User: Fold these one by one.
Assistant:
Number 1:
Amino acid sequence: MSENYDVIVIGAGPAGYHAAIRCAQLGLETACIDKSIGKSGDPAYGGTCLNWGCIPSKALLDASHKFEDAQKHFSEIGINVSGVEVDVAAMMARKDQVVQGLTSGVAGLFKGNGVTDLPGRGKLLAGCQVEYTSHGGEQQILEAEHVILAPGSVPVEIDPAPLTDHLIVDSTGALEFQSVPERLGVIGAGVIGLELGSVWNRLGSEVVLLEALEEFLPMADERIARDSLKLFANQGLDIRLGTRVIGAKVDAGAVLVSYQDGDGEHSLEVDKLIVAVGRRPYTEDLLSPDCGVNLDERGFLCVNDLCATDAPRVYAVGDVVRGPMLAHKGMEEGIMVAERIAGQKPSVNYDCVPSVIYTHPEVAWVGKTEQELKASGDTYNVGTFPFAASGRALAANDTGGMVKILADAESDRVLGVHVVGPQASELIAQAVIAMEFDACAEDLGLTMFAHPTLGEAVHEAALGVAGHAIHMVNRKKR
Ligand code: FAD
Ligand code: AMP
């Protein structure tokens, strides 16, 4: 093993592995250190996203959605099935297989691109030196021209609900249940709580989500959040807002949760409890005191817009720095830093980061919400289009939700696009592209969309900004 590299990356999650591969593509001698171990006992690259986050949760969301469709909705489209059953062990095994395939795929990409993978822990020392400790405990000091820190994040734990082995779990534990709990409690009705709650609700659990805030999904557009709440409640998710959990204890094989709401103190008995109250940056034993990298008051590594830390030639990307904790945001930061190290001048457009909640229907958005535009005093026009009026959504028996587009009143530039509906995660890409190209709502309206597609709802909402969607009655004639 060499001791000198152009670039050492610490962390092989989406932010770190994208950075490492792009550095190697650009001809830089690159090593990537990661401490994660998979279920097989081998190094497992891909970080939270591939091992315990995006991918396993989507494997279970897709599988449970198919089950629910077969059980509840096939008969509506003329398909009668009987004896539909869940095999949780098989579902989990398939999820693990998908994870295994992808994590070993990252190892293959490292090899193919010439990235040296170093399984173990990395610690930044002063002067761009890195202390590498292998899983076997051998230590070595490596030298680098540049260091990229990408150590990611871990679930937040709260004192009222300490984790236990199998009954009170975090998101990682919730991806490993071996049977369907009859009664499931979830603390936090944020993105992760809603996704995991949906999985187990579809598979048959009675799910109660306890959310401290009075407002549902405060980061989403208010109208979309309101419509989503109704759609989720209709699916049987019992979402209790303004409800703060103050205690949880295991009692006779069940979990007794105590919580406070406007009416006082209550308790709830469940078979399992998922704590999904957010994530925090992970920097344990990452930095020597003299390395020159600073943390902010919330524990994130301080960086500028270009992800440079306070230490010369040291960068930080992904969940460990400010901004939304999303895999794709970290990937773009990783690539930007790699290209900047190689002398190119890219930047990340933080105004165009899409957010998605992979429930059914999905919720997705990019840009400003209506409440943000109101608060900043911007003038805007709104176009909306419901999936109930989309030929493709009707044909697919999937008509919940709408598209909402906000455009500047003067310039018509698209300022925000918000979707709750089928395949919102795919539809939002159309909006991101439009906004990256600084499109006006009229540009989207003048673009031809294939018929019949769900994308036509985006087209119609864009036409609606100027008041002339075709498949809606417009009172104003424009
Ligand atoms: P991580 O993925 O956390 O990777 C960091 C890696 O660095 C880890 O392997 C860690 O072990 C390693 N490491 C840390 N410190 C050291 C050290 N000192 N030495 C060596 N190695 C170290 N995001 C989305 O965009 N879409 C989704 O659908 C989505 N779903 C999610 C579902 C769940 C249940 C969860 C928990 C998260 C989800 N996320 C999703 C968030 C997403 O997983 C994170 O935003 C993303 O993984 C962050 O990437 P990262 O590279 O910054 O860090
Ligand atoms: P997110 O950050 O999107 O994963 O959402 C986590 C949610 O958990 C937030 O909306 C918090 O308000 C909520 N939360 C945090 N602590 C508690 C608690 N003790 N009881 C109920 N909800 C909580």
Note: Residues 361-465 form a domain with the Enolase-like; domain 1 fold (CATH 3.30.390.30).
Number 2:
Amino acid sequence: MPFSNLGLSIPLLKALVEQKYTQPYPIQQQAIPAILDGKDILGIAQTGSGKTASFVLPILQQLQDGGSTKNRHVRVLVLVPTRELAIQVNDVFTALGTNLPQPIKTMAVYGGVSINPQMIGMQGVEILVATPGRLLELISTNAVSLSAIKTLVLDEADKMLNLGFQEEMKKVISFLPKNRQNLLFSATLSEDLNNINRNLLRNPVVIKVEEEEKNLDLIKQFGYSIAEEKKGPLLRYILKQQKIKQVLIFTSSVHRADAVALKLNQNGIDAFAIHSKKSQLGREEALKFFKEGKVKVLVATDLMARGIDIKFLPYVINYELPRSPKDYIHRIGRTGRAESSGEAISLISPDEEHHFKVIQKKMGKRVTMIDGNAINLKGY
Ligand code: AMP
């Protein structure tokens, strides 16, 4: 089914062509007509499913129907767990709204940066993408009012709860008018989330998009058995031998992410670390340079990596294994997305061997192992 069958306007269809979205993803096929119809939505979907465009497109279309806004009274609120996701979602609104005859002002607000420019920038904003804490600050200073909200989106709601935003979410919801459309997206459902759903959603259309199993088949997986102290040289060997141009490297701690990036830089390989202890500006810059191909290596912790959306990531390297098999699948799922193949490489120290076997069993796939200790790493 083409996008043109979903009831979207010509300017939106034009933007889709420009963005090279040829066919709607399953979640878009289901969500777009339902949202245009005014229904509430419960979408169980991961990053990568196309969930963002599934709410961005119908929201942009609905706002075209007019209805003037009082200044600082936003009409759409998208609540997100992280700054990275806020920026990403805002970018999708901008990209897909680019051809609209009546431009719609959207803005992303999040903590960790000065609040003043956000307060000033709120003039004329119709769609606000916000993290909960900063939004509450803006409300308390009267920089924004939620009393005219027509549509509420909770994006990655499970992550918002995991990050401890439950009280903030409740408080934000208490500022909203009763009559509104609610769209809730989450990768998983939990008891806590079900409680929120029950209070929030009215007779929702439930859309469930399973994580694509077949995706794993697109990913070539290798493991190198290697002594812990030789992981650094082996990493540099792999990066150089395979002439890797863009790679996301996972570590399990902030400290290790910094150490790995530092060592790579000392060895002439441009690398940035991205994690929760980095400044907001540092994180944004690292992501921007990585996306533009100016930096080829990004070293990240799991939490940070979730928000990174890059269309095609050819390589993922696990410098250390994650604790849960689910996280492993998440990590390697960053490559081989959208029908392009990718490669996932794991560096396995003797201490991690047993855990790697458990991961393979849970995943239902065996990973080809290479003896890294037999490789001559002199000079790396
Ligand atoms: P999301 O799950 O919203 O983070 O989207 C995942 C990725 O898929 C993003 O890079 C989008 O730009 C891309 N995408 C979303 N919908 C489509 C589509 N219909 N065709 C091609 N790419 C898409």
Note: Residues 21, 23-25, 28, 47-53, 309, 311 surround adenosine monophosphate (CB under 6 Å).
Number 3:
Amino acid sequence: MIPNLSDVKLINLPKMEDPRGNLSFIEDEKQIPFKIERTYWIYDVPGGQTRGGHAFKEQQEFIVALSGSFDVVVNDGNEQKTYPLNRSYHGLFIPAGIWREMTNFSTNSLALVMSSTAFSQDDYIRGYPEFIKYKGL
Ligand code: TYD
């Protein structure tokens, strides 16, 4: 079944609180529901810019705001929800088949994205009308 917005989850990560500074971590499939195949990060985003604006057929993702803040807007073709991310001890799990955009980046924000697949242009659904068609809506 193609996932919908109820499958998008904010997941808390372990947080080792320490007077020397806190530490969080992810081990494959213990904190997030897929094996990490690729990691990328988005940084130096000029004010007012938007990233994303597509969906994936196969790729699942987990997004953490390692620094600063930004909003992740997810849309399953029926409804839309905005997740503000601004902590490094939680992140947003986005299954395949969800339209997503990242907006409202603060100065010096850093978005870490863990992906379940290697990079593939063919996995992208780049147009919203194509996405709606893909979802059978
Ligand atoms: P894109 O996924 O469109 O960025 P965003 O969703 O953040 O707006 O990727 C931007 C460019 O970077 C595009 O030319 C593809 C390339 N790219 C890679 O080569 N490898 C990767 O792992 C990713 C995520 C992107």
Note: The first strand starts at residue 9 and ends at 12.
Number 4:
Amino acid sequence: MLKDLHGRIMNYVRISLTDKCNIRCRYCIPQKGIKSLSHNELLRFEEIYLLLKIFKELNINKFRFTGGEPFVRRNAMFFFEKLNIGKFYITTNLLSEGLDINRLNNLNIGGINISLDTLNPEKYKWITRGGDFNRVMKNIRDLQIKNIKLNAVIIKDFNEDEIKPLINFASEIGATMRFIEKMDFFKDDLDYISLDEIRKNLISENILSEEKISSQNSVSIYHQQTSGKGKVGFIMPVSKPFCNNCNRIRLSSDGAVKLCLFAKKSLNLHDMIREGKDENEIKEVLIKAVLEKLKVPENYTQTESMSAIGG
Ligand code: SAM
């Protein structure tokens, strides 16, 4: 088991399949772009399978695959089809060219999170620097996966007026809408807005019921819709950091382990595997790293973009 000195048990790993993305969301990737990894720097599929086995043996019971955009990685679908870890989760923009929705529907998926910041095609194109709104909408409607969450990063004067339409759209397709506070990973022209105010307004307008529903370790605060059409989530890493519930480990596509979104990379499993370290050595290093996990980050500054970390 991976337990830290503050009593938190790490049982959830987020794995970035690639640092590359097919879109360039303005809050995620800086205008100048990011230096991308070479093929040799990426963990190979068989190396990821090995790490998944190790994580499972350390009692990790939830795996989410993210990116960059996971489906941009060549043969990603094949990778998912060969996975043998029970139900797993994917975070995607659902826009990758050639994404086969039928094959996606047949994966052993426990849930899928889709980034959708706006319902306006022009605004979608702007925020993603070129993304095709109609394609993502078609793919969303063709999904036959039960647990769908739509994620919208809320930005002042961009999509704060779309809160209710997004909730209604999610309800219409049987998905859960989640709003995310924008974190500043680099300097941009997009303004942060605290979601707590928006959450409280939706409660006073009687759109959401007052009671908070938060499952253990969830980074979201959820409220039921009073209409009975499901719940709405708020992820507030800026105004309400969720370090107390932290149960997650992030594995970047280059094999770096991040025990906190704001920690500097320290441990690299890619290097350990290629140096020929065996499974027990890797386990020991992970156990030690988790023991050293800080209760809260030293500071909340981050130099890497979310695209490199995986969200
Ligand atoms: N390409 C996939 C996607 O679009 O969902 C997965 C990777 S993306 C980095 C994962 C999540 O990170 C998305 O939901 C995105 O909205 C979120 N994200 C990226 N940059 C962010 C930021 N600056 N603040 C808050 N959330 C961010």
Note: The chain has ten helices and eleven strands.
